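User: Can you predict the 3D structure for this chain?
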Amino acid sequence: MQKELLEGIWTILSITIGAGVIALPFVVAKAGFLTGVLVIIVLGLLMILVNLYLGEILLRTRIRHQISGLAEIYLGKIGKPFMMIFNALSLYGALVAYIIGAGASLHGIFGGNELIFSIIFFILLSIVIFFGINFFAKVEFILNPLKIIFLLVLVFSLVKTINFSYLANFDFYKLLIPYGVVMFAFTSFSAIPEMNQEIKNKINLKKAIIIGGILTILLYLLFVFAVVGSLDGNVQEVSTTSFNIIGKNASLFANLFALLAMTTAFVGLGFALKDNFKLDYRLPNWLSWLLVISIPFFLFIFNLGNFIFFLEISGAVAIGIMLFLILLMHSRSKKKGDRKPEYELKDNLFIKGLIYILILIGIIYVLIGYF
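Assistant: Here is the predicted structure, written as structure tokens:
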């Protein structure tokens, strides 16, 4: 496998696998295992398709842009601030969730005060986002396979404790319960522009998006299968903190995996949002960095929501609207793009119409549930 293809796959895995996977067992347990599996597969495939749309948009555009810059080109002047607002909201929600989840995971490893651990996690990674892109790019290539190894070790260590009878639950009427968290867990829009820069042979962009997406689906299914089955559905919001009842080794591996996943995702999303401010709004590095780190910190300190709240609102509402905009951009790019893409997908209005309906249902369901 070509090096740049492998790097592209690692990029999408590093940004995708974060707080979302940690929350999946909680919502799947609430909905029923088979219900959750169906939602994971369907939304996972949907997000691969949307990432392919976004990849094609990038390949039709000569000048380098992040996602809000693309929105200005293909949706007009109002498209840029609209996309930027909802992209920032989705990323801010993710960053807050990572801060909360990291504190819980560190508490699970060391004991002590979750709040202090969360603040330490936030400070250290904020420094990395400001200074350490070159250093982190080297370390990231080690951390990504390491977190996958921890995930697989955890799964195989739990196999003997799985209650298979608990995994036969399906409830059609609970299909929407996992929607917001699953949508969040598969979101990797910010990875696609980065992959487009990494990959010189652009046909490999399509391969990396598909392979990375399928691997993410499989890893999520394995994780949910092991966690929900071994805990008989008694799963906390930050699922990796639920393993004390099984044993110290399982708890340690679970929390180390969670910490690695949230570390790589926090830094990856932080860099992506900073690039958004720098590339599309021409802001200086220090101001871009300050905008990235200040809002999540205040949301966290003032306790404006819990772990699942930030994931569901980000996943269903902010990301849902971004999906809507990306589908529109894809249609417009076929007419307004200024270069021939290395791959292209048909502008299937029936499929896009189904996605629009799903997005609308998901937004309404989550908003009614909270407000």
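Residues 3-370 form a domain with the Amino acid/polyamine transporter I fold (CATH 1.20.1740.10). The CA atoms of residues 3 and 230 lie 37 Å apart.
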